[in-house]
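Troubleshooting: if your tokenizer reports a length mismatch, compare your output against this known-good record of 233 residues.
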Amino acid sequence: MGWRAEVLIPAHRIALALTGGEFVDLRASSTFGTFGAYRGLPDAVHGMIAWPNTVLLTGPENVVVDPGYQTQGDMLAAALAARGVSPDDVHTVLATHLHSDHVSALPQLGDVELHVHAAELETPHAHAGRGWRDRATARPFSGAAGEVLPGVRWIHTPGHTDGHVAFLVETDDGLVAIAGDTPGPDPSWFAEGSLPADHPRREEHLAAFRAIRDSGAHLMIPGHNPPAPVEPA
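Known-good structure output:
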């Protein structure tokens, strides 16, 4: 039996602006639209909360990929419970990378094994977020590619962070790529295989685009946009 991959908590952005001594909540009809609103307020103090797609894999076992944010009213635990899954039923977590929006909810799962690229554990943001991993046992992997679980492979896709990876999951419907933040906030970047000329670590990101497209995945679940088909190169 193959894996089943579903979005447990969908990507969502909340953009906030402080102007005239008041908070303004900015919303658009898409996560990218909200990101644009966040970028479009040069005269205001602004910030953003960006929840990623938290993914649940079921089949051989229950696996959470990118647990997401820690919040009041433990959303991760509640979303699992809505599917009849207790946090105690999850023993394995996969992390595309260790930014706080992707892993700060980890304590809601208790004692788990956390599979993450060894290079990611050496980043400044990983050291700053050590407390989120107090009850997790790190299972680092290294290199350019490998298998983390039967039917779940990973490929190293640095650019967004040094140890960023994409997970490739064999499902009954075909290969699914859980791509993390490599595709970026604008879905047209990956679709067109292009990036702005001044994009940080541009060539690494473009190489990661190609690796995901060449993986054979039919569906990509990005970090901060809805799942989308992967068109052949």
